[in-house]
Amino acid sequence: MLSSITILIDAHIASSERKHAPSESIYATDLGSCLRKVTMRRAGFKSDPYDARTLRVFKVGNMYHDFITDALEAQGVLVAKEVVGKKDNISLRVDAIIKGGILVEIKSVNSRKFSYLKSDSDPHYLMQTAIGFHILKDEYKLTSARLYYVSKDDLRILEMEVDLPKWLPRALTYVIDLNNAWKKWTDFGQMPSLLPDVGGKRPWHCRYCNMLTSCKDFREKMENGKDQRPSP
User: Fold this and answer.
1) What's 106's domain CATH number?
2) Which phi-psi region, left, alpha or beta, contains residue 112 (left: φ > 0; alpha: ψ -120 to 50)?
3) DSSP assignments along 135-200, one per residue
4) Which pTM value belongs to this model?
5) How do the pLDDT tens digits run along the chain, 232 residues long?
6) For residue 52, is it within any domain?
7) Between the CA of residue 96 and those of 34, 83, 108, 223, what are the distances in Å?
8) Residue 97's CB: how many other CB atoms inside 10 A?
9) Is residue 224 one of the residues assigned to a domain?
10) Residue 224 CB neighbours (<10 A)
11) 171 and which of 74, 82, 127, 146 could share a cystine (Cβ 3.0–4.6 Å)?
């Protein structure tokens, strides 16, 4: 008898999930993230596995990315897609570069986000896009960068220009913050502070963080006086 279709789909998605080897590099997607989360990831702490529903959401997001880049290619404006870059220990993968030297980052979101989406609603996306522009601008002769939002449930679309003079300095400053946090960890075993509570509760970043278990274990062990630095 045929297995559950849901089980088959989840098995397919899990088998095709992109695996990331442990790395001390900074990823462009780290910009704007919790300093502790990034430091733990770079230090090789174990991350929590994503559940099946989250993996489905990621898969659908990738399908929308492919749909958009395929359309750009069909219209003859796509220069490159899934562009990989690295500079000064910063690694990234940019969604697309189109004619005119325009870097494009595609973000698939829920339609509810469109009710409050503004030009500065997502500092992490803006910094991520700005650092991509910074690293790839000479190779691809880039002139500008755009964020392209598409809602997964009703296909609403919003395209916005990234204010590079505003967001690139912020991105570069955040890289410095990440490197300073890393040095404190490797030199002194000091982990960045937790994000502050909001209204007496942990912020949503913590509730959905894939380093949540390791973060809790780390706090408990540090409270018991155990040094969590790697052995020399």
Assistant:
1) 3.90.320.10
2) alpha
3) HHHHHHT--EEEEEEEETTT--EEEEE--HHHHHHHHHHHHHHHHHHHHHHHHH-PPPPPPPPBTT
4) 0.87
5) 567 888 888 888 888 776 666 689 999 999 999 999 999 999 999 999 888 998 998 898 999 999 999 999 999 999 999 999 999 899 999 999 999 999 999 999 989 999 888 888 899 999 999 999 999 999 999 999 999 999 988 889 999 999 999 999 999 999 999 999 999 999 999 999 888 888 888 887 788 899 999 998 888 877 655 555 544 4
6) yes
7) 26, 7, 14, 46
8) 25
9) no
10) 7
11) 127
218 lies in a domain? Answer: no
How many domains does the chain divide into? 1
Q: Can you give the residue range of the structural domain that contains 157?
A: 25-33+48-188
* One-character DSSP codes across 92-115: EEEEEEETTTEEEEEEEE-GGGGG
Residue with tokens 């601008």: 137
Contact 114, 22 (CB under 8 A): no
Residue in 130, 206, 210 with CA at minimum distance from that of residue 175: 130
